[in-house]
Amino acid sequence: MDRELWHCSDCGDEREFVQPPCTDGHTEDGGHCPEWACVDCGTALVTGVVVLQPAVVAATVRARIAA
Ligand SMILES: [Zn+2]
Ligand SMILES: [Zn+2]
């Protein structure tokens, strides 16, 4: 399994990230899955970018509707 060191925003420090088994079909055609997970807290990253929390997304959508 591949391992990479990235900064984890939840841990507040460099952490080892591993690729969990892909359930979205990214690897079905031989490609690489962009999803990684912190081995300490499980925070998910997609190619090094922290996945937005659903609450943040919802707030952004509401702000766009209100504009
Ligand atoms: Zn995947
Ligand atoms: Zn972490």
Question: Which descriptors would you attach to this protein?
Answer:
67 residues; alpha+beta; 5-stranded antiparallel beta sheet; 1 helix; 5 strands; flat; binds zinc ion
Strand segment count = 5
Characterize the largest beta sheet: strand count, sense, and whether it forms a barrel.
Answer: 5 strands, antiparallel
So how many helices?
A: 1
List the bound ligands.
zinc ion
Shape: flat
Spans of at least 5 consecutive residues whose pLDDT stays below 50 are none
Strand order of the largest sheet: 1-2-3-4-5
What is the terminal separation in angstroms? 45 Å
Q: Into which percent range does the helicity of residues fall?
A: 10-25%
Total number of distinct structural domains = 1
Rg, nearest Å: 15 Å
Oligomeric state of shown chains: single chain
Strand content: 25-35%
What's the pLDDT, averaged over the residues? Answer: 82
